[in-house]
Design goal:
This protein has 701 residues and is an alpha+beta fold. The protein contains 15 helices and 37 strands. The strands form six sheets. Strands 7, 8, 9, 10, 13, 14, 16, 17, 21 and 22 form a ten-stranded antiparallel β-sheet that branches. Helix 8 links the parallel strand 24 and strand 25. Helix 7 packs parallel to helix 8. The longest helix is centred in the first third of the chain and has 17 residues. The N terminus is likely disordered. It binds 1-deoxynojirimycin (NOJ) and calcium ion. The site of 1-deoxynojirimycin has 8 residues, from loops.
């Protein structure tokens, strides 16, 4: 054999060795992850939970503009592993202490033909796995454009799935519950006129958090954590193979993400358990987010609030001062319509009500000029965020609210013009500081400017973060409506106190509403990423608007229970003061229920059916229970063994009356009291569309 022949054989051996599949296994007590680089260089992973299949072999990769498809042809160039165990305290949350325990595996890969370096980091928790891609600093790739991410989630069966369509601009949908093979947005589009106007671009795409249940009782949740400088991930469904494929929300020209190495994608998260309650107890998404960047957080305070808002939603009042922008007098001044809710006297009435009932805040929408022509016009300049209508006295209200120890909550509707808000944000926050507003509700109704960008694309994801970071500089808390759904970023910015980002109670005011099961699904989907400003607490459940067919699809007791089942550090008591004053015994629960908690127990849970949650008040021995059901009535026993042993409590039980029913008799409730301790079992009778709320206040005897 010549030297050349020997050399050639050596190379073949080397190559074939390199081309051999390389597999890595990585596990803890519950979860087994396998990662391999297959023979053709495709990176792929799969996941088991206690030997049950969760994710079948699923490939990973990207397409990068100018570089091409990076799905196969990778080689493994190294691995790193580490682990962590710590306990940390959130600034606010459902529990006082959060345990963060994981094992981490990083695989370093090189793409053979392009030389691109790509790492995948896996973090294994008791309840699931998070993984992200990292592009290390490298010669071949500096500034680059992701035109596609190819992350698969291959499911091991035709699971029951709770989904909303993959709309790039809205998440305000009711949930469909179907098998994976039946996911079809178009079917939804034709059954609902409200949805027809916003139909999703891909009929087989769904949004995350996506909740599933397998035939043999595994609960699987797919979402993402720490979404920053990257578009939201939706999932395209391959109905035949029951595989979900990452589908990133595009920008105005169809690109997905503009990146600059070194950089990281958000974490893709898979949470799994054989108990639905474990999905809700999981803190994995928060654990995958970075700690707070705000050092002094003493100014961040959860609170309840009221607002002139339901008047507007139900047509009793309005946002605008004049009927239309053309209602002007001879001097060019707007002629008042007589229905403007944000007038000084009316706002004072709400401040008085809040003060009387120890409610911390009053939200005032429609206070600033621009509402006569703000909707659907795709206009760059609508609001300036600092000019009040003539009947709204900012200075006077500042003094009045301060005297009564009530905080006014600012409202900045951007009408989708994020560029306008970017320019004016600093001035808007200074205005809030000057006039005593410690929090703001922002909103993005309509199509986004920059034109062609989407609510859930990278540009807007960065805009939301910029607005939160800027608010923090001015010590302002922020509640964003019409934003991308949250991914636990409130750990990093605890002033990001809530989001809407789902179909809230307001839909009951202006549409066919939310079905009774809606609130039993939200905790497993939308709320996995963070708290929601759902606006519960409606007491007058029917005939509140000119359209008498509209109604809230729950009983009154269920509205109370939502203060416990739908976690938020910012909770609205959404109904009109008069409707609360008519039922002071029921309103007592809203007065008493806290928004800060030391502990949370999920007592019963089944997505789409029912949920019972108990929470311990922060810094106090009292507990509160919320129980809700879907359209079916239920009887459930709740064992109070979580109460402190040997202690006595007064339970005030706000229950559905025996003849209550969400459609025919929603306002029938009974309030009763009884002495309980940790040996007591309470029997809950939930009406159709009903619920039950309980306060457990510690007493000396
Ligand atoms: C939609 C928001 O969800 C709602 O709460 C708000 O009142 C309107 N936009 C007006 O900004
Ligand atoms: Ca159901």
């Amino acid at each position: 054999m010549t030297f050349l022949q020997v050399f050639a054989i050596a190379i073949i051996v080397l190559i074939s060795q390199d081309l051999n599949a390389q597999s890595l296994k990585f596990s803890n007590d519950n979860i087994q992850l396998s990662f391999s680089i297959e023979e053709n260089g495709t990176p792929a992973y799969s996941l088991l939970r206690q030997n049950k299949k969760v994710i079948n072999r699923s490939s990973m990769g990207f397409t990068i503009a100018g570089t091409g498809e990076l799905k196969k042809g990778f080689e493994l160039i190294g691995t790193d592993s580490s682990s962590k165990e710590e306990t940390w305290q959130p600034v606010w949350g459902e529990v006082e202490n959060i345990r963060n325990k994981y094992k981490q595996l990083t695989v370093h890969m090189r793409h053979r033909t392009t030389g691109v370096l790509l790492d995948i980091v896996f973090r294994l928790f008791e309840e699931g796995v998070g993984f992200r891609y990292e592009f290390p600093q490298q010669e071949k790739l500096k500034y680059f454009i992701v035109t596609d991410e190819h992350t698969e989630f291959a499911m091991d069966g035709d699971h029951k799935t709770f989904w909303i369509p993959g709309d790039y601009d809205s998440n305000e949908y009711p949930y469909s519950t179907t098998k994976i093979s039946e996911i079809d947005n178009m079917a939804m589009v034709t059954t609902s006129t409200e949805i027809a106007v916003r139909k999703a671009p891909d009929p087989e795409a769904v949004q995350t958090p996506l909740m599933m249940k397998t035939d043999d009782g595994l609960y699987i949740n797919i979402h993402e954590a720490a979404l920053r400088d990257y578009p939201a991930m939706q999932l395209h469904t391959d109905r035949k193979s029951k595989t979900f494929l990452s589908s990133l929300v595009p920008d105005a020209v169809g690109n997905k993400a503009y990146l600059h190495a070194p950089c990281k994608t958000p974490w893709r998260t898979i949470i799994v358990s054989d108990k639905a309650a474990d999905i809700l107890q999981s803190k994995m998404i928060l654990n995958l987010n970075e700690p707070s960047v705000i050092k002094n957080t003493s100014w961040i305070r959860p609170m309840k609030f009221v607002g002139i808002w339901w008047e507007m939603q139900t047509g009793v009042g309005g946002w605008n001062y004049a009927n239309t922008e053309k209602s002007i007098d001879a001097n060019g001044k707007l002629i008042p319509s007589g229905k403007h809710s944000a007038n000084t006297a009316n706002v004072k009435r709400y401040i008085d009500f809040a003060a009387k009932h120890s409610i911390g805040g009053v939200l005032v929408e429609g206070w600033n000029v621009g509402w006569e022509d703000w909707f659907g016009n795709w206009k760059e300049e609508v609001f300036d965020f600092v000019t009040p209508y003539p009947d709204f006295d900012v200075k006077e209200l500042r003094g009045y609210a301060a005297k009564k120890n009530v905080q006014l909550i600012m409202h900045n509707e951007t009408s989708g013009s994020a560029t306008n808000y970017e320019r004016r944000m600093d001035t808007a926050f200074r205005f809030m500081n000057k006039f005593g507003y410690h929090s703001v509700k922002t909103g993005y109704v309509g199509r986004i400017i920059p034109r062609g960008e989407h609510h859930d694309g990278q540009w807007m994801v960065n805009h939301y973060e910029r607005s939160v970071a800027k608010a923090a500089k001015h010590k302002v808390m922020i509640d964003i409506h019409e934003s991308v759904r949250p991914t636990g970023m409130h750990r990093t910015y605890p002033n990001w106190i809530a989001n809407e980002a789902a179909r809230g109670n307001e839909f009951n005011a202006f549409s066919s509403g939310n079905p009774p099961e809606h609130e039993t699904i939200l905790p497993f989907t939308r709320l996995m990423g963070g708290p929601m400003d759902y606006t519960p607490g409606i007491f007058k459940l029917q005939k509140y608007s000119a359209d008498t067919t509209r109604g809230v699809h729950t009983t009154l007791a269920k509205q109370l229970a939502l203060y416990v089942t739908l976690y938020s550090p910012l909770q609205m008591a959404a109904d009109l003061p008069g409707n609360y004053e008519a039922k002071p015994d029921a309103f007592r629960f809203i007065e008493d229920v806290p928004v800060e908690w030391d502990d949370t127990k999920i007592l019963y849970a089944e997505p789409g059916d029912y949920l019972i949650v108990a929470r311990k008040q922060k810094g106090a021995p009292n507990w509160f229970i919320g129980a809700i059901t879907d359209e079916n009535k239920r009887e459930m026993n709740v064992n109070l063994d979580f109460l402190e042993m040997g202690q006595h409590y007064t339970a005030t039980i706000y229950a559905d009356a025996s003849d209550a029913q969400w459609k025919t008799n929603p306002e029938a409730y009974i309030v009763s009291k009884q002495k309980v301790d940790n040996t007591t079992t309470l029997k809950f009778k939930l009406a159709e569309g009903g619920g039950c709320a309980v306060s457990l206040i510690k007493t000396s005897k």
